[in-house]
Amino acid sequence: MSEFVTPAPSPEEQERLREAGRLLFAGPCDFFFGAQKLEQLPPITVPEIAFAGRSNVGKSSLINALTGRKALARASSEPGRTKQLNFFNLGDRLTLVDMPGYGYAKAAKDVKEDWQGMMFAYLRGRPTLQRVILLLDSRIEIKASDREIMTLLDRAAVTFEIVLTKCDALKPSPLEAKRAQVADLARQHPAAYPEILLTSSESGLGMPELRAGLASLALPPADEPVLS
C-alpha cells in the first residue's frame, strides 16, 4: 500500500501553485550536461526531477511542452540504445533530468541490463533527486518493463509520480478506466505518489498541474524572503 496521505489543497492554494509553476517554467531552461557514466555526473547543486519512461512514450515531447520549447529535449535516433542522462538547468532553481528510454524491444540484452544497473545506481545515490516522473502511454497496456521500473524505484526508495501521456487520443470513459487501473497499480508500490496525472503534449492537458507540482519541489525564487 502507498504510504502517502496528501490533503487536497484549497482552491486558493491550487491557484498559487499553478502561478508559481507558470513563472518557473516561463524562465530560462538550458541543457548543461550529458553523462554516459556515473562518474561523469555533474556536481550536486539544486533539487533534481528525473523523467523516465519506455522508448516512444513521449518523454521528449512532454519536457518540451512543459518548458514551452520545441526542441529542448530530443528523442534518440536509435530508441533504446542511448545511455546518456541529460541535465537541464531550470532557472537555477531546479534541474530536469531526461533519462534514457527503457523497454525497447530491439535493444540488445546487455544494453537493457546496463541501463538498469546505471539507472539504479543514479536513483539510489543522488541525494538531490526529489522525484521521478514515470511516464506511461495511456493508449497501450502496462508493460512488464513498466512494472520492473516501479519495483526498481521502490528498491531505490525514490518517490515516483505516474503521468499518463497522449491522453488526447482517448475518449473520457476509456481514459477514466485507464486512470483507475494505473491508480490501483500505484497503490501496490510504497514509493508511488498517489495522484495519477493525465497529460497531452499536443493539447496542453495537465501541463499547468505538472508545472505546479514540480515548482513546489524547486528552490524558492532569489527575491523571495526565506521564512525562519
UniProtKB/TrEMBL annotation:
EngB-type G domain residues: 45-220
Family note: Belongs to the TRAFAC class TrmE-Era-EngA-EngB-Septin-like GTPase superfamily. EngB GTPase family.
HAMAP family: GTPase_EngB
GO molecular function terms attached to this record: GTP binding; metal ion binding
Gene: engB
UniProt KW keywords: Cell cycle, Cell division, GTP-binding, Magnesium, Metal-binding, Nucleotide-binding, Septation
InterPro entries: G_ENGB_dom, GTP-bd, GTP-bd_ribosome_bio_YsxC, P-loop_NTPase
Known function: Necessary for normal cell division and for the maintenance of normal septation.
Cofactor(s), names only, from the UniProt record: Mg(2+)
Pfam families cross-referenced by the UniProt entry: MMR_HSR1
GO biological process: division septum assembly
Protein name: Probable GTP-binding protein EngB
Domain of life: Bacteria
Phosphoprotein among keywords: no
GO cellular component, one term: cytosol
